[in-house]
Design a protein that fits this description.
Strand order of the largest sheet: 2-5-8-11-14-17-20-23-26-28-29
CATH architecture of the largest domain: 3 Solenoid
Distance between the termini: 57 Å
Shape: elongated
Structural class: alpha/beta
Number of domains: 2
Largest sheet: 11 strands, mixed
Radius of gyration: 20 Å
CATH superfamily of the largest domain: Hexapeptide repeat proteins
CATH topology of the largest domain: UDP N-Acetylglucosamine Acyltransferase, domain 1
Helix content: 10-25%
Oligomer: single chain
Number of strands: 29
């Protein structure tokens, strides 16, 4: 057995491989499997039949539900068995049948998920994805390799996020959308081919954005939609705004990207 805190509770039928580190107050249910490189922070609960493997660390008070598979090798034919990792923050809830893969050498080596995320049943987080804090990925949505998902984003049910796509902070991706291009912070994407239709007003209000801030974002959205010049030139014109939210959008558009952008419609 590995380094198991005496306050941890492990069902007799669970398998905790030698080398695993299990923190205080962890609870590991029947027939769960914990691999030899796994580190569980204080208070993590692993329910029955869940699998946690690979070089995987899970922060305090997370819950891994039944039949989730966390830390398995990437679904990438270029993966050659190199040592890579998965890092998951605190208080993350990973529901039934979720799959989260470790990274690849070509993608930076580490898949990351921030604090307070909710990964609903059947969703997938692929290799080298970088997922921020308080992100919700709804049932059966898929986040492909190398994606970057900003804090407070919501990925709707059955949505698909193409590899290398960036989803900005606070963006909302509607159910069934296929997103093949970057999405600006606080954007609202809907439709089967992922059209950037508006701002995520509900999310902005929930996070306490003022009327003035929302009005400034509306004006910036119209500039991006119908202003003069290329999309990046329109974004550059927003960089001197008095609004921090508008400057955030401008910086996102002008930042490095492997994809094109969804442009406002």
């Amino acid at each position: 057995m590995g380094l198991i805190h005496p306050d941890a509770t492990i069902h007799p039928s669970a398998v905790v491989e030698e080398g695993a580190r299990i923190g205080a107050d962890c609870r590991i249910g029947p027939f769960a499997l914990i691999g030899p490189e796994v580190v569980l922070g204080q208070g993590v609960e692993v329910k029955s039949h869940a699998v946690i493997t690979g070089d995987t660390e899970i922060g305090a008070d997370g819950v891994i539900f039944s039949f989730a598979v966390v830390g398995e090798v990437p679904q990438d034919l270029k993966f050659a068995g190199e040592h890579t990792a998965l890092r998951i923050g605190a208080r993350v809830r990973i529901r039934e049948h979720v799959t989260v893969n470790i990274g690849t050498a070509g993608g930076g080596g580490t898949t990351r998920i921030g604090d307070d995320c909710l990964l609903m049943a059947g969703c997938h987080i692929a290799h080298d994805a970088q997922v921020g804090d308080r992100v919700i990925v709804v049932n059966c949505a898929a986040v492909a390799g190398h994606c970057v998902i900003g804090d407070d984003a919501i990925i709707g049910g059955l949505a698909g996020i193409h590899q290398f796509v960036r989803i900005g902070r606070g963006a909302m991706i509607g159910a069934l959308a296929m997103v093949a291009h970057d999405v600006i912070p606080h954007g609202l994407v809907q439709g089967p081919r992922g059209a950037l239709e508006a701002l995520n007003l509900v999310g902005l209000k929930r996070r306490g954005a003022s009327r003035a801030e929302i009005a400034a974002l509306h004006e910036a959205f119209e500039t991006l939609r119908a202003g003069e010049g290329s999309f990046r030139e329109r974004a550059r014109a927003l960089g001197d705004s008095d609004s921090a939210l508008v400057r955030e959008v401008a910086a996102f558009v002008l930042g490095p990207s492997e994809r094109q952008f969804l442009t406002p419609e």
